[in-house]
Amino acid sequence: MNASYWIFAGERSMSMKLSLSTFAWFNHTIEKAIKMTAELGYEGIEIEGNRPHLLPTDYTDKDLKRIKQLLKDNNLRCPCITAFDGTHFWCLSTPAKKVYRDTIQHVKDCVKMADILEAKVVESVTGKPLFVEDDRVEAWNRVRDAYLEITDWIDKKGYDVTIGLENEDANCVETIDDTLRMLKDVNHPRLRALLDLGHANMESYMTVSDAIRKLAPWICHIHADDNDGYVHRHLPLGEGKINWEMTVKTLKEINYQGWVSVEMEMVKDPISASYNSLLILKRYL
After folding, report:
1. DSSP 161-214
2. How many CB atoms lie within 10 A of CB 59?
3. Average pLDDT value over all residues in the chain
């Protein structure tokens, strides 16, 4: 990799683009989520690849083409499919062989779905739980081997989709430094970093801006959510302690030109929260 910052292939516009994750719409159908996201003024919608929205095994290719047309009718793009939902259902570090194989297959199914919907990124955390009884080195190696298999499979299939590795607490890849280590261990162009700004705010020894600069050459997608820096919560922007003016300034500094997806979980008033979060980002963009 050269000294210039890596820009995600296929995303060549002159500015960042804003999307909203369907995590905000857990009480609504995917059809209603698409309609409301468009009405709020977002350019894109990041779709949860699990129930209640688009678990790949629940939908045929014909169903997905209908969703693709609905996105087009509402002038929305789908930049990312979120393969993991923060629960313990999917896990790439587990020693349980069936769970491990099912999780790898789920990520592959999300890649196939992303290809139909023309999404360029599939999000992946490494999954919970980390068992006390397990060996941490072996867990790490299982994750590495899973990403080697998935990325090689993407190449063989010819899909123009990248896996966005997202660090998260209580996962095998938990920190920004863990992310960098796994990216270097796998060393494949179809595995890049998905930077969650709320997770970055939980880092114990770096700021959000530090995290952005450290991952800059690897970033393919960004999640935007807020918290107090101590408790892992996906709050609407402005309701935590992240300095959004400084954060957006740093993203401009590294010349990030991809998508930023607002990702809130189980908010009481998703319409107001989604709109206010959009206004905050637009204010500094």
Report:
1. -EEEE---TTSSS-SHHHHHHHHHHH--TTEEEEEEHHHHTT-SS--HHHHHHH
2. 18
3. 94
**Residue 105 confidence (pLDDT) above 90:** yes
How long, in residues, is the chain? 285
Residue 5, Cβ density class (10 Å: 0-12 exposed, 13-18 middle, ≥19 buried): middle
pTM of the model: 0.93
How far, in Å, are 21, 42, 104, 260 from residue 279 at the CA level? 16, 10, 37, 13
Q: Residue 139 and residue 144: Cα distance in Å, rounded? A: 9
pLDDT confidence bin for 25, thresholds 50/70/90: very high
| Helix or strand (DSSP H, E) at 223 | strand 219-224
Q: Verify cis geometry, omega within 30 degrees of 0, for the bond prior to 129.
A: yes
Q: Would you say 169 and 199 are in contact if contact means Cβ atoms under 8 Å apart?
A: yes
- What SS3 state is found at 82? strand
**149 has pLDDT over 60:** yes
Are the C-beta atoms of residues 234 and 272 closer than 8 Å to each other?
no
CA distance 136 to 140: 6
Cα(123)–Cα(66) distance, integer angstroms: 23
Q: Say which amino acid occupies 115.
A: D
87: which residues sit within 8 A by CB, 6+ positions away?
128
Instruction: Count Cβ atoms within 10 A of the Cβ of residue 120 and give its class: 0-12 exposed, 13-18 middle, 19 or more buried.
Output: buried
Helix (H, G, I), strand (E, B) or coil at 19: strand
All domains in the chain, ordered by first residue: 17-284 (3.20.20.150)
Here the tokens at position 13 are 């516009």
